[in-house]
Amino acid sequence: MNINNLIEKLLARLARIRTLKYATNALRKVLQAEGIEYVPFGVGNKKTKLPGFYRKVGNTCPPDCPYLGKGCYSEGGPACLQQVRAVDDPDATVASFIVCTILANKYCGDWPSRMFVSGDVCRFGKVDRELVNKLKVAAVALRKHLGMDVVGYGYTHTHDPALLAELEEVGIVILQSDEIGAGCAIVHPHGDIGSLPKADGFRYIKCPSQTTDHVKCANCPICKDARRKGSCVVFDPHGPGKKNLELQYT
User: Fold this and answer.
1) Model pTM?
2) Do the domain assignments include residue 247?
3) Which of 46-71 are b and which e, b meaning 16 or more Cβ less than 10 Å from the residue's Cβ?
């Protein structure tokens, strides 16, 4: 897969398309015509309103993820319908990342794409270096073609600060899930934030998409700026498995 040629073909296809819905279908057809495999991607739900891609839950996740089989929102509901169809192929993930980033840039106000709506950066328990390296190459190319700083953002249960710094250098911002601190994201009831450890050198911020109707991921900078601004994002338990969620900070 020639990444620069693919980006140019995708951008050319969008020249006269005005809506995100039609653009998404059009770019999916470009991938199919080029014989490029991809993982499921879409335009987001009512909370996000942002293009993002899905990886299969399980093999791509670190084995110590506290939510596997214990309330992971991608093991049920709409996200599950997508992630179970994903192929375990780095090139397929990269293709969908490129498409989602172009769609977010062109139809969501120059916004980064949502990475890893389901799944993570691993393969059979270890960081998938092939995937990471190919994502980095794609991110550099996307920055060049789209003139963006941050091209994608997401979350990981993999505890590897060096990896997160490596990705951020090329415009991929990944928040550390289930750690408390700047650039982290946790799941905890919004009504019980007072029980969390005292913030020292950072601040807790409730996900505004869960607290106000007019804020969506597609117009909220809190996650992509969390590390730079010293924020720890707090998500209220959500998804079809939230009743089975084992809270980590009680």
Assistant:
1) 0.93
2) no
3) eebbbbbbbbbbbbbbbeebbbbeeb
